[in-house]
Amino acid sequence: MNTIYEECIKACIECMEACNHCYDSCLKEEDVSMMAGCIRLDRECADICALAIKSMQSNSPFAKQICQLCADICEACGNECKKHEHDHCQKCAEACFRCAEECHKLAA
Amino acid sequence: MNTIYEECIKACIECMEACNHCYDSCLKEEDVSMMAGCIRLDRECADICALAIKSMQSNSPFAKQICQLCADICEACGNECKKHEHDHCQKCAEACFRCAEECHKLAA
Amino acid sequence: MNTIYEECIKACIECMEACNHCYDSCLKEEDVSMMAGCIRLDRECADICALAIKSMQSNSPFAKQICQLCADICEACGNECKKHEHDHCQKCAEACFRCAEECHKLAA
Amino acid sequence: MNTIYEECIKACIECMEACNHCYDSCLKEEDVSMMAGCIRLDRECADICALAIKSMQSNSPFAKQICQLCADICEACGNECKKHEHDHCQKCAEACFRCAEECHKLAA
């Protein structure tokens, strides 16, 4: 595999997992209404991470552009998650910001 | 395109649209907690419809199996949606049941 | 559904179908080697169209950015497809350029 | 995260990576025509692995059914890949069979 992508793929895999887990957990919280923004962004973020992973693993000519977009969505998701005290939200925020950083580096 | 798939692709496209719209609308309802099951199944259903469409449009050797699974998920989503009085839920239920029927026919 | 997206969703659905069909047809051509670039871009283009459709149908806050990226990939795919004389490639190129135009309009 | 899924998610992630890499490598081989079946199944397999991962990570009520389908597609992809001597095909076949095994276990 193309090794320039290694760190970024790893960060995207971890972010995708954190977002899918946070999505599931938010849907099970008592006050789902408060988590609506988080649910929506978790889904967006998990989906764009999946696309970024696929693009890097298959050497897409658009890998950098997809990672640029992924960075933007990760940041938005991280900013929403960090507002909530739930452990799954805090961990998700961390994974999102780390992923945004790796995606930015790659897209630069 | 392979014409045996035509009706089923059409039903999947309509179901995917109804589910994505219902998903968005549920997240904006006042009582999101009541809609948690609907949100989750709308997402599952929109995603499997998208995969079924891709598999039929590209003549996948697994198109029938994917449509069989799509039928099951459409039925589950339709059953959840029809419990709720919101217009977007009722319309989504209809689209889900119609899609389940077409997918069953194709998979048979 | 959000009507500002109507034309763009329609163009994306037609482009996705044309790309998936072209992908399948290219894999069945006698000289697959000549079609390698087309196969790759058909896949990329069908996948980003699917994401753009989902983002518009669910009112994603990133719909415009996703459509901007979709426009770029559609143009690249259209430029590759129009080099080939096969009917499926020529039709795919047309669908790609029309979709690129609608996505550009939306993203503007 | 739900730990009953841990091994299966790991196998799906490795299989998805092997399939995406094999897909890219097949498109760059001298004789692409011979690789057409492999290219097609690599794509199918990478896509269903991605869906299986998402379903397990988000505790989908359909995770088992999706993994059952994933197992079938992994086996078909592994059987095609193992016919070819390229290193990327042999490695992909291994990852596919390992993933099929984990998915079967989970779906049982």
Automatic annotation (TrEMBL), chains A, B, C, D:
Transmembrane segments: none annotated. Coiled coil: none annotated. It comes from the Bacteria. PANTHER family: CYTOPLASMIC PROTEIN (PTHR37310:SF1), CYTOPLASMIC PROTEIN-RELATED (PTHR37310). This is Four-helix bundle copper-binding protein.
